[in-house]
Amino acid sequence: MTALAHTALGTLRGDTSDDVVVFRGVPYAAPPIGERRWRPTQPTQSWAGIRDATVFGPIPPQAISPERLAKRGLTMSEDCLTLNIWTPAADDARRPVLVFLHGGGQTQGHGSAPLLDGSQLARRGDIVVVTMNFRLGALGCLYAPDWHGAGSTNLTLRDQKCALQWIRENIGAFGGDPDAVTAAGQSSGAIAVATLMASGCDLFDRAILQSGGLERVRSTAAASAVAEQFTGAVGRAGEPSVEQILAAQGGIDPGFVPPQGPFHPCLDGDVIVEHPLVVARTRAMPAIPVLAGSTRDEWRIFDATLGDDVVTERYVRQRAQALAGQGHDVDAVLAAYHADHNSLRDVAGALVTDYHFTAPTEQFVRAHAERGNAVFRYELQWPSPRPELGACHDSCLPLVFGNLAAAPGLAGADDAARGMSEAIQQLWLEFIRGGEPWERYDGVGGPTMILGRESGTAMGHRAAQLAFWEHRYPAYG
User: Carboxylesterase type B domain spans which residues (predicted)?
Assistant: First the structure.
C-alpha cells in the first residue's frame, strides 16, 4: 500500500509495511556530480507531480564488489545524497525524530544497510527514523584546497549539515517534529555528530554518540599528507574516474599507530576551526542533552585475525608505547590492564579500545557535563556469541535497531539477545522522547550505565585506566 508525503519541494510516494510507512531514496541535495564534484553541498530542486520514493537510492562510491551490491539490490553512484525515512504515518502528529549517521571509517557504509532498518524503532517508539547517505573517502574528506579551491574540504560534514537542514524544514510532512530531532551516530558517524556539536551546529536538539573515536579528527598536516599520497596516485591533470579514486584511496598508508584512518574530518579552518576536544574543554557547545558510550571490547573484532604468535608480550608493549607516545613509561598502565584482563590479546585490544573510543568520548562528554548539561554515559558489555569478539565494535547496532537477524554474529539472535535489545531500545527511546533514561553523568567516576547480562549503574567505572590517556588528546596537550 502506498502513502504520500507533501514536502515543501514536492510530493513523495512511499510504501507501507507492518504499520510503518517507508520513504526511500529521498533527495536532500543536488547530485555532487560533474562541476559539483569536490564542491560544497547544494540544495536540491523542487519537482512537479509525485516522485517515487519506494526504492533505496545509490550508495556512495566505496570498495564493494558488484556481486555484493547486486545481492542486496543496490546500486552505487556519486549521485548518492539521499535520505530514508521510516514513520508510523505521514500525518501531523509531530513525533520525535531520530537521525542516524552510519559508521564505516568515512570510507564504507550507507543508510540502506539492513542493520539500520528503522522499522522496529519507528513502530516500537512511535518515532520517525531517518538514515542518510553522504560522500565518503576522498570524495568526502580529501583536504586539497589548493587543488579544488575554497569550500572543497570536509564535504562529508557539509553533506550531513545539509541533510539536517532538510530534515528541519521537511520532516513535518512525515509525521515528525522538527523541534525534537536527535542526531545519533556510530563510530565515524559519532565522530561527525560530536564535530558538528563542536562547530556550533544548531540543527538537532539531542545527540547520541555510539563508539566514536574522537582522536581521529585530524590536523591539517596529517590531512595534507594523505592528500599528497592520493594526488600522487591519481595526478592533478583532469578528473579521475570513480575507479581510479577508489584504487588510490585504498593504497594510502594511514600510519602505524592503530587505528588511524586516512579519511576523517580535519581542521580546515572553515567547517572545523578547533579540535572538538579543545572546544569541549574551552568553551560552551550547544547546550543539548547527550547520551554517549562505547562497547567494552571495541577493538577485539579488528584483532581477531592476528595469530597468537603475533600477540606476544613484546607486541603488546610496543602497542602500548606507540599509543602512549614517547617519554611515557607504560609499566604502570600495562600493570593496570593486566590486572583487569586475562590474556595478552585482551590487553592489546583494551589498550586501543580505551585510547581510541572510551577515553576521548569520556573527556568530550565530561566537559559538556561540567557546564551543566545533561549527559548519560553507558558501556555495552553484552557479549557476541563468538567468544573471541566479546562486546565488540558494531555490536550496538543490532541491539539498538532491533535487527538481530541481520548480523547474528555480533550480538546473537536468541531470546536473551532480544530481551537485551528491547531493554536498550526502551532506554534510547526514553532519551529520544526528551526524558532521562538513567542517572546523569557528572564527571570522572560518575554514574555509568552498564548494559549486559547484569545491567545497572556503576560508580568510578574504569576511571584509573581512562585517566592515563588524558595526555594524548589536544584538550590536554
Answer: 5-439
